[in-house]
Amino acid sequence: MPRLAVLGHPVAHSRSPAMHTAALTALGLGGEWTYEAIDVAPEDFEARVRAMAAEGFAGANVTVPHKQEALACADVATEMAREIGAANTLVFVDGQIQAHNTDAGGLIAALPGLPRGARALVLGAGGAARAAVWALRTEGAVVDIWNRTSARAQQVDIELPGVRIQVKGGGAVTQFDQDDYQLIVNTTAVGLHGEDPFDELPLRRGAFGERVVVADMVYGAGPSTLLQAAAATGAKVVDGIEILVQQGALSLQIWTGREPPLDVMRAAAYSLDGR
């Protein structure tokens, strides 16, 4: 029986097991395939991944904080994953660990239009941010990236050239105009534990408007505080669950070769909080 999993730290909040289990059942694979969540600390990640094939795993999703390490420990990687510098999908086949990135395609599929020619602001500098920057630039957006510290932001700038960096450091925030952006993507974990995003991120609560799309990769029980505030000003919003569904569908297609049942996956992911 092929096994699948999501690897993260923490990972108990993940909706991937419910979403993928529903999808596998809809595809008639529920009696053959399983999907589970595995919490693994960073220092144990590589050893855990290398043991999975022998335990019957066909593949795994990878979430915070392991996406860059997932690429580093792979034997082979897609060109997209290499260019992004992070992987969120692993395949175990023929004695090899293969690395893919479906975060980029999942974000683009979740967006309601844009981004060719649009100005985009990506918040964060981790694996999800790298995928967002790569995807948006590939689609023709002009991308700025903001991060709390300069080191990680500068690394993104070096490895994904052409991105303009806004850095919070030393207690000071480099000022820029939120009104300049048609798309704002939050890839940070701000909001995951109930933080007020307007205390932690360089955004003004009432400064979104109807021409703006706001995407938040954080998800929980109901829309995030960031998305609620954006929607209240008329902005179009994309929540983390929709992005999860879209990237998860691409992962499922890689593992099974089947067309993913998006409606089933979406219903399962949202059902956990009654939406």
Mean pLDDT: 89
Q: Structural class from helices and strands?
A: alpha/beta
Beta-strand residue percentage: 15-25%
What is the distance, rounded to the nearest whole angstrom, between the alpha carbons of the first and last residues?
32 Å
Helix content: 25-40%
The total count of helices amounts to 11
Radius of gyration: 18 Å
Q: Provide the succession of SSEs.
A: EHEHEHEHEEHEHEHEEEHEHEHH
Total strand count, please?
13
The poorly predicted ranges are 167-173
Give the strand order, joined by hyphens, for the main sheet.
Answer: 10-9-8-7-11-12-13
Report the major sheet. 7 strands, mixed
- The backbone outline, from C-alpha atoms, is globular
Report on the structure:
By secondary structure, the chain is α/β, with parallel strands linked by helices. Helix content is 36%, strand content 22%. The protein is built from 11 helices and 13 strands. The protein has a 7-stranded mixed sheet, sandwiched between helices. Helix 5 crosses helix 6 and helix 10 packs across helix 11. The longest helix is centred in the C-terminal third of the chain and has 17 residues.
Question: Key terms for this structure?
Answer:
275 residues; alpha/beta; 7-stranded mixed β-sheet; 6-stranded mixed β-sheet; 22% strand
Summarize the structure.
This protein is an alpha/beta fold and 275 residues long. Helix content is 36%, strand content 22%. The strands form two sheets. A seven-stranded mixed β-sheet has the order 10-9-8-7-11-12-13, with helices on both faces. The protein has a six-stranded mixed β-sheet with strand order 2-1-3-5-6-4, with helices on both faces.
